[in-house]
Amino acid sequence: MMIGGVTLVIGAIISYSVVKMVIKPPTSTTIIRSHESPDAKKPTNQTVRFAAFGDLLAHDSVVQNARTENGYDFTRYFGRLKPLYSRADVIFCNPETPAGSKLGVSGYPTFNAPDEFVRDLGVTPGCNMINLATNHINDKGVAGIAETLRLWEATTPLAIAGANRSIDEQNTVRYFTKNDIRFAFVAFADFSNRGDITPGALNLYHDEQLVRHLMGEARRNADAVIVSAHWGTEDVVAVNTDQQKTAQLFAELGADIVIGTGPHVLQSATWLSHENHKTLVWYSIGNMLSSQLLVDELTGGIAGFTVEKSTQGIHIKDIQFAPTYMAYDWPEADKTAGRLMTRTNLELYPLWDANDRVKRMFPNESAATRMQFVRKAIGDEAGISIIEKNDSSP
User: What range does the domain containing 90 cover?
Assistant: First the structure.
């Protein structure tokens, strides 16, 4: 599915300048569901800040460049980004690939990351809400799913959803409470690259009975429901009809936020309405860590928002997006010959700091042209503020 390969910033984002790109923001604080919550009598509002990272892909060159004398260190990729998410309470991550060294480390097309991939993502950036519903999670079959779950569970995250060791696990909604707000987290994928899926192993949203079961329970038992959806057409910025139809179903079933991944490029964000509430949908937050080839695949970002609970209900506010760029060096002769493993110096940057690396890789592009792409891809329907430059010291 790859070559070599909602809501969402990010704590320190408040220290960055924000360029308003919106023509018609809904409001600075959007009430998405008015209800009397169990803690409605509490006099102060409760808030939780989210940061959402896109696809984290253990491509061969990503793994190779993380090698150390004693194993691997994947934390090094995120050092420049730390100011963008350091104040987040919840960090959503989409590690697209299974993991487990004992099953053999491999890249595209049958992925399997080393143990350290999970260990390090749990430390830096500190992934603690984990989506495992992807088209690659079944690359190593049920043994790979079980080992991936074991490794992620060892990081003690808030919630893991989307892949399972049994039908009983599949039918169980994952909950967590942060700052007195109770969240439900459910996750679904469009398909699996490997066709032999063991019953219960992977949540697919085409199983509408499963979707309705999980969403119904989640809505009854949580203040806010977050859905992860791995979907869309790869390398296509336009949202397809399957995504639109499925997002509307999630909204009708009570989702408050939908975080989309899978296309490997950014797609638009929007609000969907149903009866007495609104759903924030990020159709795709793009790639984060990868060594894919196209400039659009290397332009991603961290999506963020704050969930607030008050006596009036659940609100979403401070919706932002901090663009990032995944850079690497690749000698022209090796690039022409398609020698993928010769890519070196892989680094993630805030987009505004990546101009030289962008131009080196793509002479007709720059940080400015990439920022134009981000604005156009995300659109103006959701009222999202785009972080354009760092006006403060880290």
Answer: 11-389
**Total domain count, the chain:** 1
Domain of 273, CATH number, reads 3.60.21.10
Residue 29 falls inside a structural domain: yes
Question: Alpha-carbon distance 302 to 53, whole Å?
Answer: 5
**pLDDT of the chain along its 394 residues, tens only?**
444 443 333 333 333 333 333 333 443 445 565 544 444 455 589 999 999 999 999 999 999 999 999 999 999 999 999 999 999 999 999 999 999 999 999 999 999 999 999 999 999 999 999 999 999 999 999 999 999 999 999 999 999 999 999 999 999 999 999 999 999 999 999 999 998 999 999 999 999 999 999 999 999 999 999 999 999 999 999 999 999 999 999 999 999 999 999 999 999 999 999 998 999 999 999 999 999 999 999 999 999 999 999 999 999 999 999 999 999 999 999 999 999 999 999 999 999 999 999 999 999 999 999 999 999 999 999 999 999 986 432 2
| 88 neighbors 49 (Cβ within 8 angstroms) | yes
> Which among 63, 5, 33, 9 is positioned nearest to 285, based on CA atoms?
9
List, in order, residues 6 or more apart from 390 with CB less than 8 Å away: 16, 17, 83, 350, 352, 353
Q: Residue 109: is the preceding peptide bond cis (ω within 30°)?
A: yes
**Residue 70, in any domain of the structure:** yes
Q: Which helix (H) or strand (E) holds 230?
A: strand 224-230
Which residue type does 202 have? L
Task: Report if residue 4 sits inside a domain.
Answer: no
Establish if 3 belongs to a structural domain.
no
